[in-house]
Known about the structure:
The structure is a single chain. β7 (151-152) and β8 (155-156) form a beta hairpin. A seven-stranded mixed β-sheet has the order 2-10-9-6-5-3-4, sandwiched between helices. It has helices at residues 11-21, 30-43, 54-64, 82-90, 189-199, 226-236, 239-257, 290-299, 315-318, 328-334, 348-365, 371-374, and strands at residues 2-3, 47-51, 72-76, 93-97, 117-121, 139-143, 151-152, 155-156, 165-169, 182-186, 203-204, 214-215, 283-286, 302-303, 337-340. Helix content is 34%, strand content 15%. α2 packs parallel to α6 (226-236), α3 crosses α5 and α8 packs across α11 (348-365). It is α/β, with parallel strands linked by helices. It has twelve helices and 15 strands. The site of pyridoxal-5'-phosphate has 14 residues, from α3 and α4.
Amino acid sequence: MIPYGHQSISDDDIEAVVKVLRGDWLTQGPVVEEFEERLAAITEARYAVVFSNGTAALHAACTAAGVGPGSTLATSTLTFVASANCGLYTGADVALVDIDPATLNLDPLQIPADIDALVAVHYAGLPIDMSALPVRPRVIIEDAAHAIGARTPSGPVGNCAHSDMTIFSFHPVKTITAAEGGAVTTNSPELAEALRRFRTHGIIRPDPTSHVYVIEEIGYNYRLSDLHAALGNSQLVKLDSFIARRNELAAQYRELLEPLPVKLAPEAPGDAADGWLHGRHLYPVRVAQRDKIFKTLRSRGIGVQVHYVPVYRHHLYREMGHAPHAFPATESAYHELLSLPLYPDLTDAQQRTVVDELESAIHEVAPSASASEAA
Ligand SMILES: *Cc1c(COP(=O)(O)O)cnc(C)c1O
């Protein structure tokens, strides 16, 4: 099976993890600190605080920003459910924003004016231009689980030039992995402190020479281990080459898919000279008869995926009154979206196999499909 995403692990990654195993620290220790320093350097943020996973990072970011009962947090319909659940964790209400079909990101023009917090998801790695948001709620969090290494004219995603915090995930399908792991970047020393407290039970140590510690608010054990951080840190060294290969594969998809009745994945609004770099976590195309094509490709060893079941379609969110008819752009995209395999170790030959299989699946399933039907 050619999967839709896969980690790239090399000997240097393995050696980095083994080195930690041979040392004194297994849980959060000096390698976590190193990982945080490197993350802050790469994203050009003042602070990076790492967590056990991206979902914990979202929970921490919402809590640190004071999102809670009485708040409304808005996010995209087309995202992994964690982008919305983080609001529910705090007791906030969740509002969902329909997508712009041209970008598959939330449509900035549809962000409600009266929300307290926004979780802006850079879907598939295409960063939203945060400088151009028409509304600026009290709290702005970027969900960059797909977008480490991406850039806009405001600089690297994660520098928080136009947001309070940015979260990342280091799950194995994401651009770099720590097996499990997440991070929040911010330029605020207060938020960085609140994030660190939240990560370790809310503990404050007023006097490091004393056994006494103080707990004023609830926290969790959301720490990352040095073992995980060693892998993440070693992967970060390769971030630029991973992103370059992902973009190369995306450009090749563009060419190879050109003759097929397939709508290509969205592109960044500018190129490197304009300051744009797509993170290319996913390559989501749109095809007619998606369910049939999905099954055909899966049966032939092509591990395509659908990103995502829209948040309002999950029972939990339906029960809260979110309904498909309110999100026409997401509904029409959802029935056609198909993520094609994209990861640095995907070979050119494997990529051609993916496209050949897609072409024959389209001919079998929808012999009369035309470009206009898919578009
Ligand atoms: C993966 C992902 C998360 C959660 O990250 P985990 O590390 O798996 O908890 C959050 N938001 C989006 C958009 C994601 O894709």
